[in-house]
Fold these 2 entries.
Entry 1:
Amino acid sequence: MRFYFVFYRTALKAIAEYRVDFAVGVITAVAMQLAALAFYWIVFTRAPALGGWSPHEVLLLFGFTALVLAVSELLFNGIWWLPYYVQDGQLDRLLVYPVNSLFFVLMSRPELHALGNLTAGAVTLGIAWSALSPPTWALLLVPWWVGCGAVVYTGVLVLVGALMLRVVGPWATHLFTAHQMLNTSRYPLSVYPGWLRTLVLYVLPFGAVIFVPADFLRGHGSLLGAVLWPPLAALGTALAAKRAWDVALRGYQSTGS
Amino acid sequence: MSALPRPTLRQLVHGFVVLAQKTVQTRLTYRLATLVSLLASVASYGVFLLVWLAIYRENPRPGPLSRDEMLAYLIAAFLVNSLLITSVELRFGHRLRMGLIAGDLLRPLGFLMFQMAQGVGDVLANLVYVLPLFAAGYGFAGSAILPASAAAAALTLLSVALGFLIAFGVSYLIVQAAFVLQSGYGIMFLRASLHQVFSGLSAPLVMFPPTLRGAAECLPFHHEIETPARIWLGLVPLEDAPRLLAWQAAWGVGLIVAGELIFSAVMRRHQIQGG
């Protein structure tokens, strides 16, 4: 564990050297959240509620989604660099280190612009929280839900990355599939058709870590479901991701120069 | 040492065409990767579509467009967007990081035309994927997705070409920003955010709240997506189309000229990195 901590700290220091990039990254992250909120604004000028959820209840979903994204970017962002590692032959070098290769890749490139998503998510969640007034003790569960959400999101990214390890595309665009699936959690599951609800609750369980807690906070879902479902979803996704990564590496062929 | 002879116009056009062809070939080499990224766009856009369908269930008349008109608009906007997505900034960012940009700056075609030829190649490659998507859109929305008239279809072709000029112009400005910042990653995502809100991709501007609509009308992004989609579907009277096309041309040329001016200034102080 000490090795991973030192490695992560070093990676953070390296990123922090590029201060302009950091500033632009934070502004960008906030802008992306504002872009999503602009559509929220359009939606609620045209309809009083969405799928049985009020504007403030939907805002809860926005807040959780931004926080999940932020924590994943801050701790496990390296997966986004996988296509480049493969193209440049750097993955070969990473694989020969006597460490867990998946953790090593995940921790290799933290993104400090996650602080922008963290701020935007906290503000959005704060506004929704003050409007809806759920029990105060539920605040203690927020880090638990966000942590589980970050594991699920990262796990899905690893699954996609592992599946595509042999399809060496020029960019990381295939990972955006997972990123876009996370965006489904910004809106109530009731607006989606049954097959998509099943997909985001059980297969790529963003709904289990974002929708289920938010449903509890608005006074509809059960506490037991909100406490137990997210870690189960996180555990299942993490195990599937690790398995997919190991299988993908067994068939990996170097392409680097 | 004598200077190299300047290429003739014929040679420049030939170089442009060959580079565009090669870009198409390169893009088609990564067929599966492109298909997967297209799937990502469909998934992302599917959320907008489903949210709008839910809005029409909650409020059957939420604005000036009927449900069917809205559905047709969203599909048309998605198709125009899929057609005009280029990899200009991504490609440039990669080459900048690796130090390969030094060679690009010396090409006889010129830096602007070098980037534009690759952008044209991207659009031609996109066409391969957009045509089946159009067929799928027809299956989903029926004849509502077809052009309002032959004149509307012809004007849309011109509008899409001008939309490309605007999209490329914005990309070219991002390339200049990347020269200065040594990384275009952040700016590229900033553009994506602005594009998502103001291009009319998620909704036509008539459905925007007044403040947001006012801001969108002052920016070029809606001329990339909304203008061609509206002309195609006949949501714009034909006599209004020339005015919109003139705005598109003005934005496209203005952005590219601005990019060239910044490029000249940037080149006086740029240092090549990487390698």
Entry 2:
Amino acid sequence: MTSMTDTINHHLTDALLMAYSAGTLPEAFSLAVATHVSMCDECRARLGAYDTVGGALLDESETVTMEPGSLEATLALIAGSEEARDDTAPCQVATTDDVLPAPVRDYVGGGLDDVKWRPVGMGVKQAILPTVGDAEVRLLHIPAGVAMPDHGHSGTEITLVLKGAFIDDKDRFARGDVEVADEKVNHTPVADIGEDCICLAATEAPLKFKGLMPRIAQPFLRI
Amino acid sequence: MTAKNEENTEWVTCIARVRDAQDKAAFARLFAHFAPRVKAFLMRSGADAAMADECTQEVMATLWQKAHLFDPARASAATWIFTIARNRKIDALRKARRPEPEDVIWGPDESPDQAEILALQQESEKLAEAMAALPEKQRALIEKAYFGDLSHSEIAEQTGLPLGTIKSRIRLALDRLRHAMK
């Protein structure tokens, strides 16, 4: 598995963890949350607490009577699937990877070498991962020292660092760190000078780029 | 032991019997308690009665098939069944995949420590008690977040209050869970 990171300083918000636990996040955001949790024991434990909230709600909730014969139908379902048991092995991607945790490998269909990067200018590359729903999630490869195109956004944006680091305002985000930005944030992440930065970024709504260069780049970025 | 405590212990025992002996009577008890709750959850999430019934059957069948993955040192029966029902909801109602974190350790690598099981189960009960004690309005909001389709930004706007109230309880649950994960 991917190595755990002990030095994570920037975590997921309660609202995101709760929505992931409740199962109400768009798939793109769920991927970003699952990937951070893969790297962060702290958020894994917090998520466990939210799942416990869900369990308590289920246990205390109202009930709706099942149709007559549903228990027998369920037992028949179980008997039927036990006969056809062999295809139940989880279709986990077999590769391991130092950079991409398992949830991302699942969507890439392999490791970092299998990512189908597309150049978007200024040396920045991206790969949009296939998800359903309103939100989008992409891998971004930003050369050391290069700035993400200047942008604001009309919804939440989650940026999770998988390799290298970026600096935004005063904060430094390294592997495992996640930046949760809402529309009030006008930020300009800059990849740290030490090495290229690879991020997983989920966006709720199209990014709003400012300035000529980024506006040209936007159609290519498909953001 | 409280009544709730005895009930939770019974569910843990029932799941173990399903796992070890394919015990249909134990399964029937789990079904009688949880199936009508899972069905209500799915209907509140937007399924009609017929679809909710069908999906609930699938959730309960998954419980049988994955009983070996249930770890009572890490989750109560209700929590585990909630996660199965939630995943079914995403799959059936929203037609989306559910990315799961790497290395989710529901499966026991060694047999779980009895003290750990008891502590986790008690912590789950305390959390349930704290939530039951919430003012109706706050409780309704949390229920809406889990059972309805409140978006995460709506949750962020609306749940500050109830989250604040149950925060200390969640923190305790966190410490417990963190310990259990180690």
